[in-house]
Amino acid sequence: MKKINSETTSQHINDVVNYLEAHTNFIFKFDEYILELTQKEDLKKITIDFEQIEKVLVRQDVDGSQFLQVNFSHGAKILITKNLVGFKPNQLVGFDLTRIPRVVTTVDLTSVAKAIDDLFDSEETIESTAEIEILKKVYQSILYGAEGVGFKMQAEKTWFSSILLNPSAVSA
Predict the structure, then answer these.
(1) What is the tens place of the pLDDT at every residue in 81-117?
(2) How buried is residue 97: exposed, middle or buried, by Cβ count under 10 Å (0-12/13-18/19+)?
(3) Is residue 52 within a helix (H) or strand (E), and if so which, with residue range?
(4) CATH no. for residue 53?
(5) What is the three-state SS of 61-105?
(6) Looking at the domain assignment, is residue 1 inside a domain?
(7) Distance in angstroms (rounded) separating the CA atoms of residues 33 and 52
């Protein structure tokens, strides 16, 4: 593992904290090693180890809004926008990632869970059964992507396990 000097780590801390202080949609606390960042929209918390940050880039989306791209030494990256933290969904065997956006958020899990719940409540057909299986893969891909960048996703894992074990007990 590459040794990151304290000057670089301090700069990463400053870059991230300065960005967060300018946006009110996050609750955060930090020390010299760790940032705990909670999104106000869904109260999901991500923990970031500053020493694992390789690079922080200020970027701009197509609308001209600035966001931070945070690259980690283990190859993952997150995008911190004014409202949410974006990340890449996880590649799953047998699932075509081109079916979903290249960058997702934890909020997307709520939409996918609702779609799964709605399909469980509808009349069972070959099409609805196939769609549920696809949505399960979408959910799993986003869930594992979120965990891979440091989000705490225990409630979502529990919900997903419950639909795998007992699909008729779903309540999103």
Answers:
(1) 999 999 999 999 888 899 899 999 999 999 999 999 9
(2) middle
(3) none
(4) 2.30.29
(5) CCCCCEEEEEEECCCCEEEECCCCEEECCCCCCCCCHHHCCCCEC
(6) no
(7) 9
Tally the C-alpha atoms within 13 A of residue 110's C-alpha that lie toward its C-beta.
7
Which of 57, 87, 117 is a domain's end point? 87
For the record, the structure tokens of 60 come out as: 């701009």
DSSP state of 59: E
Work out how many domains the chain is built from and give that number. 2
Q: Tell me the one-letter amino acid at 20.
A: L
Task: Give the model confidence (pLDDT) of 44-63 as tens digits.
Answer: 999 999 999 999 999 999 99
56 and 78 in one domain? yes
Query: Does residue 129 sit within a domain?
Result: yes
Residue type, 168: S
Using the 3D structure, point to which of 51, 66, 87 is the last residue of a domain: 87
The boundaries of the domain holding residue 77 are: 6-87
114-117 long-range Cβ contacts below 8 angstroms, 24+ apart: 114/172, 116/163, 116/170, 116/172, 117/170, 117/171, 117/172
| 123 phi, psi to nearest 5 deg | -65, 135
SS3 content of the chain, % helix, strand, coil (to 5): 45, 25, 35
> Tokens in use for 84?
């949410």
